[in-house]
Amino acid sequence: MGETIQDILVTPAEMTAIDRDAARSGIDSFALMRSAGMAVSAAALRLFPAALRFVALCGPGNNGGDGYVAAGALADSGANVTVFALGDPKALKGDAARAHRACSLAASPAETYEPQPGDVVIDALFGAGLARDLPEQVKEIVERVTGNGTPVLAVDLPSGIDGHTGGVRGSSFIAAHTVTFMALKPGHLLMPGRARSGTVEIFDIGIPARLVAARAGNLRLNTPRSWAHYVSALDPATHKYKRGHLGVLSGGELSTGAARLSAAAGLRAGAGLVTLASPSKALAVNASHLTAVMLKEIKDAGDLSGWLQDKRLNAFVLGPGFGIGKKARDFALMLCDRALVLDADGMSSFREGRAELFEKIASSGGEVVMTPHEGEFARLFPEIAADAALSKIEKAQAAARLSHAVIVYKGPDTVVAAPRGRCVVNTNAPPWLATAGSGDVLAGIIGAHLAQGFPAFEAAAAAVWRHGEAGTEAGRGMTAETLVENIPPLA
């Protein structure tokens, strides 16, 4: 099950290069625009059969050209269509000018549009390449359309959404549906762009897949195709030690639940054995809650050093409920030569002195995954978090390069990034995953994959996807405990 073009993400700059390569290869660029506009018109008729009027808002570039083609096709089909143009259509150039000339409908100034009952707006003002705030006149149109509840069908990306970052450039339409071309853009997947794009349809307008793949970088949608090879390599007849031994480090007697959730998730997710390493004072409370998960007393660094003599113990989770401080730092530095998930308190303990951790990861050769949410990311990588010019994807990639670890930058648009630039964006997580203990479960799933021999990047990507599927299966009333119960099989 190999990668498909549907998995590839391209930045707006890469898409511009792809369009240019297609034209240079001899493909008729106007034929591509016509294909795009026809796809939009087909989506409009399919999705909004009760529309009383289609309103095409056409911008000053090629996105506007797509809109003129769509408007003409809708009119030819017998639909009631009105066109509004931003700027002077006579100033259009190239294919957009040709599309305008071919459209038999007269265009009124965009700023004069007043929504009417039964309207459906075709937003062809600006596409994914928008890199500035919307003009005031367009903001006013957006306000009128949004305030009136008029449905919007976006061409490429809702106008006002930055295709590079997913951010809102001053204001934006909120689309019911978006038709984009050849490949997804980061703005379709990163919040808030994802929430404002509605359902997204990728239409193949006829650019050869090889041209798209040649320009695409390391960005992908997170799907099982990203890590299927490692699933198929698992031997279903193997014994428990071949499936790995995961160690989860518990906190003190008043904060043991988070580590137990990670341990339970690790066992459910496929680790052959899971041991909860507990300080002395927490042994009784942990023992009273454990069955299949084993328990071992680990009081200090000396105990941990002795335990590490067992080389079958090949992966660890450190952080959930562990406590912030020197003990967490000491333990983390000792574990960097193994496969390690550094979560929660494990990361926060390095808010000061992170350089020692990053250098240890780089020199130890282990497989380390860090799982920060927004606040933890800002504490551990403050200079990266503060750079407003970077997308969430770029921030995760920068943090991975700096730390030498795989970064799982959590949220509704979780990004997984590797130190060498590979990156996937996850989209299958339901909103109710944002609940207490959910992150502890994710850490345990990653740990299970590491224990089974997955490389760190694939372990994290697969875990994030399974975590999302588990949340969907558990349903809106889920708790962290029921989330564990609903972790799906790897294959």
UniProtKB/TrEMBL annotation:
Keywords: ATP-binding, Isomerase, Lyase, Metal-binding, Multifunctional enzyme, NAD, NADP, Nucleotide-binding, Potassium. AMP binds at residues 410-414, 439. (6S)-NADPHX binds at residues 62-66, 127-133, 156, 258, 321, 373, 440. The keyword Plastid does not apply. It comes from the Bacteria. Its cofactor is Mg(2+); K(+). K(+) binds at residues 63, 123, 159. Pfam families: Carb_kinase, YjeF_N. Its EC number is 4.2.1.136, 5.1.99.6. PROSITE patterns: YJEF_C_2, YJEF_C_3, YJEF_N. This is Bifunctional NAD(P)H-hydrate repair enzyme. The lineage of its organism: Bacteria, Pseudomonadati, Pseudomonadota, Alphaproteobacteria, Hyphomicrobiales. The gene is nnrD.
